[in-house]
Structure formats: structure tokens, C-alpha cells
Amino acid sequence: MSDLIITHVDVDGVCSAAIAKRYLKTDPFVVFASPRRLDAVLRRTREGHERIVITDLSLNHDISEAVIAEVQRLASSGSKITWVDHHAWNPADVEKLAKLCELTVESSPSAASLFFRKYMSDDDVSKKIAEIGDDADTNANALENTLAYKYGTWELKNRLLLLDSFTRGEFEGDFIKKWQEEVKLQQEDSERLVSELSLFTTNTGKKYAVIDVRGRKAQGTYAAKLAAQKLDLDFAAVIYSCRSISFYRGVRDVNLLPLAERHGGGGHAYACGASLRPSLCERLLCFLSRHYKTKEMRRIIQELNSV
């Protein structure tokens, strides 16, 4: 029977999967997923896997019953399921899932470093991978290649390339140098975008900006951090697509997670995202005009004033 890893699509997800592969010591099949689609991913997962590792994926409470049912199905078929995550969970969901799998839900800068401490603390390569996970997921971006790694995770083929490289303990390469060149272009566009931003103030006096990166080279997390530093922002909202808005803490302590959770998302107090559900007509309008904002988008932007 084969092993399976289900992980998030970002750098921390790749890092977590790389450490999990080193932990399993096999060649598992890897599936990249988002928390809001985890129920669908598990429904498509066939029975018969010896071990299943789920990492860097929180359990969104609105789909918890469906996810728990699928975990129960897979566990009943004989699969040993290990789930490691560092996001905020509903306590009742933790209690239910802990009866079905080996569950670790703890606060940590990244899921990768949590997996490292729990299962691979004696492995130097996993330690390095965990450091990358921490740097990326906290948006510190202090390591030389972190922004290049972030660029790579936007496409599945590059995500898999990075995963294999990390698993082998290789953190440099020609493909990473190419990504670094693209990152320079992203940074230049991010700087232009930040210089054009309009600033807003919430009802409680917090400063923020809405950053729309649709159709641009600008990188969302980099633009949000740059804007916070240059414009003294408390937080920034980044529009990635008609289905995705993320929120990033700025130079002061702001808890953005409740807003994300109200709109089917999750994450951390300092970095989180909403999961939007545009209609077919709205998706078409977004395709035709990159600046079009759906009804839910406009509602979320209105709600920013109450943060």
C-alpha cells in the first residue's frame, strides 16, 4: 500500500511535505490543497493508503462534519492518519478528530517547524527546511531565497520541483536563480503599486490599504509588507482574484482572523484569507475587467472599517 501526503499550496505547505517525506522514508503521492476544499480532496481519496499525512491545513468549521466523516472512512479502511497543523481550530473539532487520527494542533511560526519538532528533531536537513517554513509563513522573508521559493509555489510543476529539491536537502539551483530574476520584477512592480495606493482609516483609527494585484507582477505578501513599512499601516488587504482576498498585519498588533472566518476562510491573526464565492456572472465580469469587485468583495472592504 502506498503513502499519501495532503498539504497546503504555499511555501510552508511544501516545506511541511518535504519533512513528511523524509519522515515517511518512502515515495508518497503528494496532493496540494486549500482548507476550503479539503472535504472535496478527501472525498476523492481512495481507500488503501497505508499512511496518510495531512499538514499545514486547518479544519474550517463550516466543512468540519464532511471532513471528519471522510477521515473516519479512511481510518476505518486501515489507513494510519497523521495530521499536523499550526492554525487556530475550533476546540470541538480538535476533540472529534483526535479520536480518529494522530492529531497535533499547536501554535507555531509554521507547520513545517511544528512537524520538525514533533517527528524529525534529530534531522539537520529537516531543521533547515523548517527554518525556511518559518521565514516564509511569518512573512519575514529574511532568508536569501524565500521570495524566490514563494514565486515557485504559484505553479504546480514548480511546487513539485521545489518539494523534491527540499526533500533531498538541496536549497539552491538554476531554477531558483531564474525565480529570483522574476522576483526582482515583482518587487519593482510592488514598489510602483505601493506608491499609487490610497490610504483609509477604520472607525477605530487604524490605517490600512487595499492592494489589488490582479493582472500585475506585484507579489501580494511583499507588497503588503512594503506598504506597511513605508506607509505606517496597521494592516493591508490584498485582492489576489475574484475568489481570494488575504489580510496581513502591518506595523501594529491587529487580529484579522475573525474577518477571514466570517467569509469561509482562516489562517492566523497576523495573516489570513477569505474564501469568496462569486456567481458565474461575477466570475465572467472579473475575467473581462481585472478591477471588477464582486458583491462579497465590496462587503468585505466595507467591513474593514470595523477592524
What would your notes on this structure say?
With 307 residues, the chain is α/β, with parallel strands linked by helices. It has two domains: 4-141, 3-Layer(aba) Sandwich (Rossmann fold), CATH 3.40.50; 190-306, Diaminopimelate Epimerase, Chain A, domain 1 (Roll). 46% of the residues lie in helices and 18% in strands. It contains 13 helices and eleven strands. It has a six-stranded mixed beta sheet with strand order 6-7-8-9-11-10. Strands 2-1-3-4-5 form a five-stranded parallel beta sheet, with helices on both faces. Strand 4 (80-85), helix 4 and strand 5 form a beta-alpha-beta unit. Helix 1 crosses helix 8, helix 5 (111-119) runs antiparallel to helix 6 and helix 9 packs across helix 10. The model has no long low-confidence stretch (mean pLDDT 95).
Offer a quick outline of the entry.
The protein contains 13 helices and eleven strands. The chain has 307 residues and is α/β, with parallel strands linked by helices.
Measure the end-to-end span.
49 Å
Strand order of the largest sheet: 6-7-8-9-11-10
Radius of gyration: 19 Å
Q: What is the CATH topology of the largest domain? A: Rossmann fold
In the CATH classification, which architecture of the largest domain applies?
3-Layer(aba) Sandwich
List the secondary-structure elements in sequence, H or E.
EHEHEHEHEHHHHHEEHEEHEEHH
Tell me, rounded to a whole number, the average pLDDT: 95
Low-confidence regions? none
Please summarize the sheet with the most strands. 6 strands, mixed
